[in-house]
Design a protein that fits this description.
single chain; 410 residues; alpha+beta; 7 helices; 63% helix
Length: 410
Amino acid sequence: MSARADTRVLSLAEAQRAAFERNWDLLAAASGVDAATAQKIVSKEFPNPTLSLSTTYINMDNHTSATPSGNGVWDRSYDTIVAINQLFEIGGKRRHRQTSAAAGFENARALLLDARRTLAAAVVKAYVASAQAEENVRILLQSAGTLRQEAKIAELRLKAGDISSSDRNRIEIAAEQFELNAQTAKAAAAQARVALEVLLGVPRPKGNVTLNDKLETLCAPVPPAGMNDTGDARPDVVAAEAAMQKAEADLRLQKAYRIPDPTIMAQYEHQPPDTPQTMGFGVSFPLPIWNQNRGNILAAQAARDQARIAYEKARAQAVADIAVAQLAYDDAAKRWRRYRESIRPKSEQIRKTMAFAYAKGGASLLDLLSAERDDNDVRVAAAQAAADSAVTAAALKASLATMEVPKPAK
């Protein structure tokens, strides 16, 4: 995995796998699933009973607490009471709480998969940006090298008296400009690699990454548009639907709280010498006179309405994302195909023709420089089209994603 001690060689698949393992946002989303799992456990638990113990010394008519048989603690005239209280939830509260927790777990799981979906597209975008920046460096250095060769030819023509020294100097100036632009492109490439390392969860990102996949190899085909074209199975839509279901369960739970829960009591009392053994049972519950939980019910209704609106918006946004991503990919793919099959070969042929004509004295310096700059611009534009094709392909794939967890790359 490493060419040098401080540099890692990464393919796009390896970068995505590393991001899935160490990205901070994804780890935070995973902790949300753990919290939701804990809430499911809590929702299934019963309230604990309450045990109480009290002892009261009773001394009436100056009676001694001792007994004829002796001074045993159990035989003294102490009033000892042991009671157990158990709360019972009625009205479906426990069922509604479990429904809410299950919906919360589904929401957290869907948010985790949605974070994975968006992270995969973000890694592709950062990786392609790095590859594009490195391709721009290569193009600019190649253009500078070509002009350096033209400068050598110009030197020969200068000695032969065919051109002036200003023509040779203009070629060298153009070559130096390409080299300076290449330096700027190198800085942009380093910044893009740093951004990529941030997504990969590198503790100290410095851009020490070597890309194993070149730009043209990243333009891969995408799944057909017919897969999940409605967006209903996309993780963010599923998360919004689960949030709506949770809000509905919470509303039912708040309405159930209007029904008071009884507390059953069982009591044993020991009070020698008159009534040494007494047992009793009782029930208690709050009277819903002053507080009928109306405020919490209204708040739950508002939360339910907000969750329903958010779900409808998520569905519409998913359909819009698919349509926009499909249009963007179709346009980028067509542009990349035109550049690759037509524009770039023609531009290269024109540049070579002008270079040959200039070497033979059949073209002017202006024609040579113009052809070189045009060819450089065409190759840079072709690299941009290739990058757009790869990025829009990843965006389309992300917009068509479902709740299924993708298998790790081998």
